[in-house]
Amino acid sequence: MNDFSKSMVELGKLRHSSLIVAGNAKNTQANSAAHEKFGQSVFEKHGLIQLEASDVLGSEHRAVIRLGGAHLLKLKGLPPGNWYVCQPLGSQSPPDFLVHFSGAFFSVQFKLGSGLISWNDNHADPNSIYVFTDELTDTSVVRLGSDFGTPELFHKMDSAVAKIEEAVSEFNSELSRFSDNTHGYQLYFRPKWTQSGGREITNYAQALDREECFAKVIDFIEKQCNTEDPNTIRYSPCVEYFKDQILEHREYGQGIIREVRGDKIVVNFQKGSTLLKHKQLVGGKIQNVLFQ
Question: How far is CA 166 from CA 19, 159, 171, 176, in A?
C-alpha cells in the first residue's frame, strides 16, 4: 500500500467529534474548515507537500479540473513529485483537493453530514474520492463517487439540471424585457440534491458495503499510481542520460534515446526525432528543475 493509500486509511478513522470547534458544535463553516485542515495534516504526514493554486495552475489546468476526475489524465505541465493543492477552483467549487502522487492525479472531496450527504452544485463525480465524516455515528467513510450512483442515474440527473437551466435562461431573457422589471431582477438557480428513503440507503457511514467500497478506493489509487512505466524517466536538462532510456517530456510525450552526443541526446518521439540538452550545470551545480 502506497503512502497516499495510507492517508486514506487514516482519514477513514476520523471521528466527527474531533472536528468540533469548542463551543460551536453547530458551526458548519468552522467544522468544514477543520475537516479540510485535518486532511492537509494527514497528506503532509504521508509525504505530500502543499503547492499554491496560484503558483502552479493556469486557466488551462482549471478548465480540465472542472470537467471532473475522469479528465485529470489530460493535465500537462505540472510539477512532478507528491503534492496537493487545496481548493484548486476556489472555495465554492469542487474538488477540495487536487492531489498528485506517483505520477497520477486525484480529485478528493470532503463532506460533513448527520446521517446523509447534501450534494450542492452537482451529484457525486464518479472518478473522485470522497471522505464523508458523519456526526450521527461519529465516524468517517471513504468512497469513490461511482459508488453513489450508476452512470445512467447521473446522466438522468444531469439531463434534468440542463432542462431547468435552459428554462431559467429563457425566463431571465423574458424578464429582462419586461418593462416593470426596473430593478434588474434575475432568477438564480443552483442545483442541490437531497436523499430520502431511510438510513439504510442514505447513511453511508452505516452502509453494509462500506468496507467493500473502501477497498475499491485503495484499488483505484494503486492502479492509477502504477499506470506509468517504471522504466520511464521524466526529462530534465540537468540529468545525464544514456542510450535506450525512455523519457517522458512535457511537450513531446514519451520517447526513447537513440543517440548520445556529448551534452546532447537524440530522442525519438512519436512526432519525430528531437535533439535535447542533458548534463547541464548552472554555476557549477545541477540546477533544481522540477519539470522541463
Answer: 40, 11, 9, 15
Question: What is the reported pLDDT for 23?
Answer: 47
Q: Note the pTM of the prediction, 2 decimals.
A: 0.73
- Res 21: pLDDT: 60
> C-alpha cell of 169?
435562461
Identify each DSSP E strand in the chain by its residue range.
49-50, 83-86, 97-101, 104-113, 119-120, 129-134, 139-144, 192-193, 232-234, 246-249, 253-261, 264-269, 272-277, 281-282, 285-286
Q: Please indicate, yes or no, whether residues 61 and 96 belong to a single structural domain of this protein.
A: yes
Query: 31 lies in which domain range?
Result: 3-155+190-225
Beta bridge pairs of residue 234: 248
| Mean pLDDT over the full length of the chain | 86
Residue 172 lies in a domain: no
Provide the 3-class DSSP secondary structure of residue 134. Answer: strand
Task: Say yes or no: 44 and 10 in one domain.
Answer: yes
Report DSSP letters for 157-194, one per residue. HHHHHHHHHHHHHHHHHHHHT-TT-TT--------EE-
* Residue type, position 240, single letter: E
Q: Are residues 9 and 110 in the same domain?
A: yes
| Whole-angstrom distance, CA of residue 61 vs CA of residue 203 | 34
Alpha-carbon gap, residue 76 to 68, rounded angstroms? 15
**Are both 195 and 51 inside the same structural domain?**
yes
What local confidence, expressed as pLDDT, does residue 36 receive? Answer: 92
Q: Give pLDDT tens digits for 14-67.
A: 999 888 764 455 667 788 888 999 999 999 999 899 999 998 999 999 999 999
- 163 domain-assigned: no
Domain count within the chain: 2
Q: In angstroms, rounded to a whole number, what is the distance separating the alpha carbons of residues 268 and 253?
A: 10
Residues 220 and 281 in one domain: no
Q: How many Å apart are CA 241 and CA 244, to the nearest integer?
A: 9
Sign, Cα dihedral of 35, 41, 42, 43: positive
Answer yes or no: do 275 and 202 share one domain. Answer: no
